Structure to design on (482 residues):
């Protein structure tokens, strides 16, 4: 009987003619804001000061904290805080006690407004940490429940903007290395002269087979280098080779004699002094044969390679090659691939003079081998770093100096600045210098491997590389902003 009477009283109260006001947010103060990362969670603390709040006796305010980013695509809603007037509080507690009312979602606090009294609500919010919180707002959404239990509005108050300070955007410096200038730019170029000789002979006959064509090519190459005023020819190095058939000792002598006759031709043709020519001979060119076979595709390919690689006795090696496929394979190799092995190789060594940037900029298109790394680097720096010309020059440097760590490191620096991070890492891992470590750090940072990046920055900074120390400072500033 008492329960029925109470429900009637509550209904009578809710149908009162009082009108709820539009908002109480102008009477609520929010202060003492803090936000920090604790482990994997974001913890937000603030106080809600109700000293100036004078809620109507029959009304109820629901404050719902919500974190959302600028376009509301990412949000996190927390449990609400419910503040009631005196009569609403009494009725609400009785309804809850009699199980006649329950919230859709249990509030984190249910408090009665104490008018004309100091009243502060400490609020602690906790959620999984995420980077987007650095661009998010913390809002308090207000719902006022007034007469007849009706919703009287949905206002909001910005509590924190942003929740966390913006994440620092580190700027990592990639280091290019200026190659040292060469005091003397000693260069050499090697060419092959496939001169034809009669079987077991070494007389150089200019009109025999295609020797006239070969010698014309030799003349063109030698004359071009000797007539280039930018170059000073220092010496010639001649090496003779024979193809691997017949007697091994005879072939060694044959390669010697063929090298000597080519030297004689060069001396007579160009007046080259004896002291400027070095002669060598290698006999049977098994290495050359193996390289040729490696590029071919035929049934006995692997068998030929195995015989060359594993049979150390030359006579047995030749015998086994003869036996493959009943001699068919050997005859084919002898006809098609042995003749080019019978040759002389000649290397022309020279010194190139120094070039200024304007001269080097022209030469790099036609004769890059006449330039030093330093000269190429200075040319590269005349172009914007994001240009095709800048990249092309570093490609040229690596082609001409493939084993040079500075050339590799500079190309890797370009790759990092243009998004080819894994290429750069592969290239730099073979280089053990502070500049390479710094650039490895930059590449790993770009790929999101921040701890690895910091290791390389520190390693390079410990060697007093200033760019790496600056990068390490940038990294530490970024970490502090998280």
């Amino acid at each position: 009987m008492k329960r029925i009477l109470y429900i009637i009283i509550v209904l009578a109260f809710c149908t009162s003619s009082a009108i709820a006001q539009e908002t109480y947010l102008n009477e609520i103060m929010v202060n003492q804001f803090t936000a920090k990362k604790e482990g994997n969670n974001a913890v937000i603390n603030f106080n809600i000061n109700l000293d100036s709040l004078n809620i109507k006796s029959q009304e109820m305010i629901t404050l719902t904290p919500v974190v959302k980013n600028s376009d509301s695509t990412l949000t996190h809603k927390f449990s609400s805080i419910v503040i009631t007037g005196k009569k609403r509080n009494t009725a609400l507690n009785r309804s809850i006690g009699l199980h006649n009312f329950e919230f859709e979602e249990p509030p984190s606090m249910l408090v009665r407004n104490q008018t004309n009294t100091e009243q502060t609500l400490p609020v602690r919010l906790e959620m999984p940490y995420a980077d987007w919180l650095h661009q998010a707002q913390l809002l308090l959404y207000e719902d006022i429940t007034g007469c007849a239990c009706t919703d009287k509005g949905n206002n909001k108050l910005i509590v924190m903007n942003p929740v966390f300070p913006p994440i620092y955007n580190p700027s990592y410096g990639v280091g290019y290395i200026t190659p040292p200038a060469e005091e003397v730019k000693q260069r050499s170029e090697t060419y092959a002269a496939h001169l034809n000789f009669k079987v077991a002979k070494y007389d150089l006959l200019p009109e025999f087979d295609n020797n006239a064509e070969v010698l014309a090519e030799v003349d063109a190459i030698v004359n071009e280098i000797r007539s280039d005023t930018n170059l000073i020819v220092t010496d010639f190095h001649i090496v003779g080779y024979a193809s691997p058939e017949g007697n091994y000792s005879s072939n060694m002598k044959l390669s010697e004699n063929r090298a000597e006759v080519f030297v004689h031709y060069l001396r007579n043709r160009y007046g080259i002094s004896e002291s400027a020519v070095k002669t060598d001979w290698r006999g049977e060119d098994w290495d050359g044969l193996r390289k040729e076979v490696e590029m071919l595709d035929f049934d006995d390919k692997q068998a030929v390679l195995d015989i060359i690689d594993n049979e150390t006795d030359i006579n047995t090696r030749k015998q086994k090659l003869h036996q493959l496929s009943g001699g068919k394979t050997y005859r084919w190799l002898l006809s098609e691939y042995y003749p080019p092995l019978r040759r002389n190789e000649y290397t022309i060594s020279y010194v190139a003079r120094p070039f200024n940037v304007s001269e080097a900029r022209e030469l790099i298109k036609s004769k890059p081998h006449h330039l030093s790394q330093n000269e190429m680097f200075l040319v590269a720096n005349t172009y914007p770093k994001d240009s095709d010309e800048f990249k092309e020059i570093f490609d040229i440097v690596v082609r001409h100096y493939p084993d040079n760590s500075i050339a590799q490191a500079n190309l890797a620096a370009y790759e990092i600045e243009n998004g080819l991070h894994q290429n750069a890492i592969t290239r730099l891992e073979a280089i053990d210098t502070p500049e390479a470590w710094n650039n490895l750090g930059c590449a790993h940072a770009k790929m999101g491997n921040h701890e690895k990046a910091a290791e390389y920055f520190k390693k390079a900074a410990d060697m007093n590389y200033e760019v790496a120390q600056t990068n390490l400072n940038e990294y530490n500033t970024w970490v502090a902003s998280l």
About this structure: The mean pLDDT is 89. The CA atoms of residues 196 and 298 lie 27 Å apart. The chain is about 40% helix and 20% strand. The first strand starts at residue 29 and ends at 38.
